[in-house]
# Entry
Amino acid sequence: MAGSYENVTTGSGSLMNQKNILESLDIPVGGDAYEAIEEMYGMIWYLAGKLVEAEVYSDPLDAVEEASTFHEDGLKESPTERFR
# Structure
């Protein structure tokens, strides 16, 4: 999928640097775009850590991988979809 989570992360799951993200997503000028991506990346990992604290997962990477796999389900649960 173009523009997926994998387009902004490295093979080890780290967030790419701004230059690589902008090139990967074909964004010509993207300070704001990078900041939005960086904030969402931080939110994902924060919530994954909370799932480990709640003993839903033992490794936050497992939570992130599941969320990536089922991201369309997450979109369906989002306020944007529910209130159309």
